[in-house]
Amino acid sequence: MERKTRGAYKTWFYENITTKGRKAMLNQVTDYINGILEVTDILKEYTMQLRELNNQMNKKLFTWLLQLEGTKCLDKDILSIAREQGISSKILMAASWRIEDKVQKNVEKLCSERVLLLNDSNDISELIAKSLYPAAPLPSQIKIIKEHNKRIAKITVPNQEKGLYIGRNGVNIRLAQRICGIKIEIN
Questions:
Q1: In this structure, which CATH number among 3.40.640.10, 3.30.300.20, 3.30.230.10, 3.30.70.270 belongs to the domain 122-187?
Q2: pLDDT by residue (tens digit) across 115-159?
Q3: Is 134 helix (H, G, I), strand (E, B) or coil?
Q4: Which of 7, 10, 23, 171 allows an S-S link to 167, with CB 3.0 to 4.6 Å?
């Protein structure tokens, strides 16, 4: 009788506690995960909106700074900006827009950071080469490949020059990637 009672309790416990409890826990975990994914999607959307707002503000700022220097620059002349405030900025200008060294130096003084003004190019290798300044790769050193539907620029450089390409704390390569819209790998 004791054995039957224990067996009945074990069966009841397994059916009512273990099985149902496991299902309930899995349902709760699934609900939590779905909730977290929804929050993540909302945060990604707001992050994109903030990036766009930041980009527009930076465009207005540099348009104003360039106009302050006497150049006739409009918002449409600035195609893209990659900026880490107080450290460095890379600004992609329309291909027809000409940049004077004096203007660039004065803009650097006004915002207290390194500013690279570069002209757009139809050749992505040429644009990448320009955006990596102060490093100076030849466009022929840059190989563009496709991996998983994404373009990647692979540049082979001597070990002693890698620091120049990457920049302090990775700033140079990070800004070059943002301004060109392509991942850059230094080998």
A1: 3.30.300.20
A2: 998 989 888 999 999 999 999 998 888 999 998 889 999 998 988
A3: coil
A4: 171
CA distance 41 to 45: 6
Backbone angle region of 138, left / alpha / beta, with phi > 0 → left and psi within -120 to 50 → alpha:
beta
For residue 15, pLDDT over 90 is answered with: no
Closest CA to 117 of 140, 138, 88: 88
Spatial distance between the Cα atoms of 123 and 119, rounded to a whole number of angstroms: 11
User: What residue ranges do the domains of the chain occupy?
Assistant: 1-120, 122-187
Residue found by looking up tokens 């450089």 in the block = 157
What does pLDDT average to over the chain? 91
